[in-house]
Amino acid sequence: MKPTAIIAVADCDHEESVGLVNGKRSRQHDTGSRGRGLGYCVVAAVALPIAILRASVRTVPPAHVGVAITFGRAHDHIYAPGLHLTNPFARIVTFSTKTTLLEQANHVPTKEGLTVDLDVAVLFHIVPERARDIYLSMGEEFVDIVVKPELSSAVRGLTSEAEAKALYTSGRSEMQRKLKTELTGALSPRAIIVEDVLLKAVKLPLLLSQSIEQKAQAEQESARMEFVLTKERQEAERKSIEARGIAQFQKIVSEGISPALLQWKGIEATEKLADSTNSKVVIMGNSKESLPVILGGDTVKS
């Protein structure tokens, strides 16, 4: 007895069984299998375009731009935020166009050879139209590759030329300005715009911090003493002006007083005293030439 083999072949038009039965070729049609095969073809014809369409849809988040990468090639077109149809085999690399904050702690030397801890923050954003150039030259991790090393280098270069006390005084703002200028020159050609650079915190060695504080206290005390001396000088000048005024007044008054005027004023005062109810007798005689005048309360009334 010869072996029997059955081989089934199905397509979208018909489905039949072909085999060898007892050494003879036989062909049989299966109506049910034919219907199932046609259904599979219809499902495949509908699902395949949907899958391709779904694979072609890409979404770029708000405040981002996208660069399409297909088989190792970066497309020239920059995708704006929103929904896009692309090659289903493409990968979209997104870059944020928002302001990015980068904080960095630096342990750097100063001009005197002292080591300080300096915390720096930089605000920056990319140029959206040049996202493809950023991807081709620096990649997706451009912050770690370029921005952080450039910031560290700029901070070390500036602190090595400045004194430690400048970080506490007005030299702080000057250092920020120089740091921003240097970073702008290094990152602008790479399509990275530096918005601002901030020196957040400065930690000096303990002995240096104490000496700076003591010097500041001495300067404050000197300024206070200068204020006190200025106030005392103004007070002395005021008293001198007042004394000159009193002396001038006395000189004017003394020049206008004569002996006869004084004698007349004395007589007026004596008369007023004699009119008083408490006075009984008033004896007036200023010198040996003047005659004594005796006034009593009854005499004045009469």
What is the structural class? alpha+beta
**Global shape:** elongated
- What distance separates the N and C termini? 190 Å
Percent range for β-strand residues = 25-35%
CATH H-level superfamily of the largest domain: Band 7 domain
Structure overview:
The protein is of the alpha+beta class and 302 residues long. The chain has 5 domains: 5-56, no CATH class; 58-96, no CATH class; 100-204, 2-Layer Sandwich (Tetrahydropterin Synthase, Chain A), CATH 3.30.479; 211-254; 259-301, no CATH class. Helix content is 46%, strand content 29%. It contains 7 helices and 13 strands. The strands form 5 sheets. A 3-stranded antiparallel beta sheet has the order 1-2-3. A 3-stranded antiparallel beta sheet has the order 6-5-8, covered by helices on one side. It has a 3-stranded antiparallel beta sheet with strand order 9-10-11, with helices on one face. Strand 12 and strand 13 form a beta hairpin. The longest helix has 50 residues, at 206-255.
